Kinesin motor domain-containing protein (Aphanomyces invadans), 475 residues
Amino acid sequence: MRNQSDDTRNNLDKRTARTRHAEWFKKGIEHLRAEYLTRTNEAPRSFLHSVQVYARIRPMLEHEVARGEYTTLTCVGPNTVAVHNCLMKPDMVHKYIDTQVHEFSRVFDEATPTATVYEAVARPLVQHVLSGGESVCMMYGQTGSGKTHTMTGFLADMGRDLMALSTSIQMTAVELVGSKCVDLLHDRTKVLICESEEDQAIHLVHSQSKVATSVAELLALFHEAVSRRATESTQANTVSSRSHLIVFLKLVGAGPPSDGGQMVLLDLAGSERKEDQFTNDKQRQQETIETNMSHLALKQCLLAKENNSHVPYRNSALTRILKNSLWAAHKSCQAAVVVTASPIPADTEHTMCSLLNARRMVEVNPTVVQTVFEITETSEAKPIKLFKSFSHADVQKWLGAVSHGELEAYVDNIKPAITGAALLRFPPARLTQLCNGHAGHAKLLLHAMKDYIAKENEERARERDMRRANLGTKF
C-alpha cells in the first residue's frame, strides 16, 4: 500500500489540476484549435434579435502570464467562441477537455482593439441616438473580466461622435448598491426612483446633471462618477465593483432630428466568486443577493422585449430605471449587451456561466454545442527530466527560463561542478550566494526547484498508475 503523502492525486481540485497539468491541457487545446482553423475566414452571420449580444475576451494580464496561466477560450470565426473546460476523470489520472461552443452577434478575441469593438457594437447605437432615439449599451460579466475597461474605452469615441452634431452633452450618473440608488455626480446623494401617474415615466428624484461641452469634459465627468462608485476587495479583483453604474448621456442643442436623443451606458455589477461570499459580511451578502435578483429581472425583461410580451420592469430598481430607455412604448429604442470573459483556467466556470446567461437575455433555450476530447498518452507532453539528473548545461538552461528569465543574470554563476543533484543539496545561504546576495531571488530559486520536484512526483505517480491500470491490478 502506498504512503499517503506520496499519492499526489488526493484532494486535487479543478483549479489545481488545471495548473499542475497545464502542459498537457495546453497541448490538447492546441490540437482542438488546429481543427478550428478552417472556420476562421467565415463571413459574419446576422442574428434577428431586438437586442444584440456580443462577446469580448480580455487578454491575459502580466501577473497571469508570469505564473504560467494559459487561455482556455478560442474564437472560431466571427460569431462563435469555444470554452475549453479542462477536467480530470474520477481516477485523477486521465484528463479530458469538455468544450462548449456559444454563438453571438459577434465575438472579439483578446487581440481586438477597443476601437474595433466600438465600431461594431456602439456606433450603430450612437447613430440611433443622433436620429433622436434611445440606445442602451450594457456591460455584463465576471468581476475583473474587462467590463469597465470596455465601457471607458467606448466613451471617448462615443463623445466624439455625439459632439459632432450636439453643442453639449448632459450627463447623469447614478449607482445601484442592492436596492439603494445614489447620485455619483453630487456626493452620493440618495436618489428616489419614482413613476409618474400621468405618463408612467420614471423620474430620478434628487439626481442632478452636469453638462460637458467637449470630449475631455465628458471623460472628466465620467471619471468623477466612477471615483465615487462603491467597491469591495475580492479575491478576483483588488477594487471590485459591487454595484450597477448607470450613465445617461442626453444631447443638448443638437436640433432636429437629434433633439431628445439619449445614450444609456450600463456597467453591471461584477459577479462574485463563491469563495468571496465567505469573506463578505452580512450587509455585503444581502447586497449580493439583491444584485443577483436584479440580474435575473433584467434577463426576464430583455427576454420579454424579445418576445413582444409584457415586460415585468417593476421587479427591480434596475429595470425600473431602464424603463424610459428600453421598455417605453412611445419611443424608438435599441440595445446591445457586451459580455466580457476571462480566458484563464481558474475562471472557466465563471466564464461558462457568463456566456450562457448573456445568451439567455435573448434566447429562451440557447443551444450549446458540447464535445469531449480525451487526452491520450500520445497527445500528452513528454515526461519531464528528473532534476537530480540535470547536467551542468541543463541547470543553466533551466535557470535562465525560471519566471520568464527573472534569474537569467545568474546563469554564469553555475560553474561546471554544479549539476542538478549538487544544486538540490545547496542550503539557503549558498543559494543566496549564487544569486549575488539577492535574498528575494534566492527564495524564488528555491520555490522553482520545489515546484519542479512536485511536477516530477506527479509525473511519476501518473506513470505508475497508468502501468497499474494496464496490468489490471486491483487496489
